[in-house]
Design brief:
352 residues, disordered C terminus, 39% helix, four-stranded antiparallel sheet, alpha+beta, single chain
Length: 352
């Protein structure tokens, strides 16, 4: 009994058929090889820093808080604060690093979702990020600049809201097994220093505005209290009770507004200029245009104060206006906390 030879699929008898079959076979092999190549490239891409950058940009664009936390974990906030503890302003030194890091994270999450940050974060957190931080990053997504086997750098930039200075943001992207994610902010110190410098410039600008506004308020108070002068001296009234008698006069109110109330302080000095007392007084009552301001007050004194003022000889009195309230609700004040914009109507606060 003879052995039976294995049977193979019959090849086409014609040469053309055999060529077509071979071409089909090669096409299938090429497709499999190409698919395998692209699958491997895709698998490698998922394990690359470029993919981490893509995810970060996607999280920012879609406001995906969970994806953002995956690519930009909370440890980055910890690292950021710890790097800056030696240059954080004194106002924040009392804050624990962990507390500052949590506040930083709360701010990032709020800005990512385009939501208002918690009050405690706005009040306590270092002002490093503008309110439209993530909206700016949407327009300038992160790009991968350089990478090696363990570390990569992604960069973007945002604009300071007041100085309009372009500030670079450099992120370190590290490898942990097959995954890559943000592990730190490379230019943390530069970032904070740039912001603090910009904030200082902004504060100086605001201080100049405040000084100008305060000077305007002082001029307005002098306008409504022209040529105000005072006299003061200690005396005893019936029964030997010690009092300070204070008198004030001014030229007529030039108007055209009516004064409703006003407050002043009266530094009392001796011949050498030493301030011995500084009483404060406030008055309410309409002072029409053309009316003079004439007032006198008697204030109780302690016996030791009476002796001290009496021993000083003639007292010199100055008038320092504290505020002037007009009948239309406009207030002028020499207290920076009370400064109001020109023409603003305001409910008067408690007088000093």
């Amino acid at each position: 009994m003879g052995l039976e030879m294995p049977r193979f699929m019959l090849l086409p008898e014609s040469r053309k058929g055999r060529v077509l079959l071979g071409a089909a076979f090669l096409l299938v092999c090429a497709s499999l090889a190409t698919g395998g190549y692209f699958w491997k490239r895709h698998a490698d891409h998922l394990k690359s820093p470029a993919y981490a950058v893509e995810q970060l940009n996607e999280a920012i664009l879609t406001k995906n808080e969970k994806l953002f936390a995956t690519v930009f974990p909370s440890e980055v906030s910890d690292d950021f604060v710890l790097k800056l503890m030696d240059i954080i302003p004194d106002d924040f030194r009392s804050q624990e690093p962990r507390s500052l890091a949590l506040q930083m994270r709360a701010l990032l999450n709020a800005l990512l979702l385009d939501a208002p940050a918690p009050d405690f974060t706005q009040a306590c957190l270092l002002p490093i990020l503008p309110e439209d931080f993530f909206r700016q990053l949407e327009k300038k997504p992160f790009s991968l600049h350089k990478a090696n086997a363990q570390l990569a750098v992604a960069e973007s930039s945002f604009q300071h809201p007041s100085s309009k200075e372009e500030i670079k943001l450099s992120l370190a992207i590290g490898r942990s097994g097959d995954r890559w994610n943000v592990v730190g902010i490379l230019n943390a110190r530069e970032l904070l220093s740039t912001y603090l410098a910009a904030l200082k410039q902004e504060q100086q600008r605001l201080d100049r505005l405040l000084e100008g506004e305060q000077a305007r308020h002082l001029r307005q108070m002098a306008h409504y209290l022209p040529d105000a002068v005072c006299t003061a001296g200690p005396m005893r009234i019936s029964g030997g009770h010690p009092v300070l008698v204070l008198s004030l006069t001014s030229a007529p109110n030039p108007g055209p507004e009516i004064m409703e109330s006003w407050g002043m302080e009266f530094p009392l000095t001796d011949d050498s200029g030493t301030i011995l007392a500084c009483p404060r007084l406030s008055e309410s009552g309409k002072l029409l245009q053309g009316n003079e301001l004439r007032r006198s007050w008697t204030m109780d004194l302690e016996e030791e104060d009476f002796i001290r003022l009496s021993a000083a000889g003639k007292l010199h009195c100055r008038v320092v206006p504290l505020y002037v309230m007009l009948d239309d609700g406009t207030m002028y004040s020499n207290d920076p906390r009370w400064l109001k914009r020109a023409g603003q109507k305001t409910t008067p606060p408690a007088h000093p």
